[in-house]
Input
Amino acid sequence: MRIAVGADHGGYSLKEAVVRYLIAEGHQVEDVGTHDETSTDYPDYAVQVARAVAEGRADLGVLVCGTGIGMSIAANKVRGVRAALATDCYMARMAREHNDANVLCLGGRVLGTGSALEIVRAFLEARFAGGRHARRVGKIEAIERGEKG
Ligand code: RB5
Output
């Protein structure tokens, strides 16, 4: 898959591990930075990854900040993006199966590297279940279009 990845300083170290993992698994990775631990602003990276996914240049995205919260808030401002913060594999799997999430957000100050890479694996392996979940995702899209849910 084509996977866009980004982080701020709080997620830099974990992002580097995620990039190595994804490349080792044979994915095509677009790393939008950050490239060191200098303090920086998470929305700058969230918007790049979110737009890559929304515009079809990436199949999925992974964003890492200190908690994953800022990244998820920012990425969800981009139309077509469903960014999900996951702190365990169940959340990651459900984010795709039920919510059709297309961006995974992780907390670099919350998760150990081993747990985080398992979460990434769970997210990538899961598939959207469709059915009643498609109706619900459709209602999210209606909200995004400014229509009544
Ligand atoms: C940076 O200190 C921190 O606020 C950021 O990485 C993130 O956790 C925000 O949600």
Observations:
- The two ends are 32 Å apart (CA to CA).
- The beta strands are 2-7, 28-31, 60-65, 83-85, 103-107.
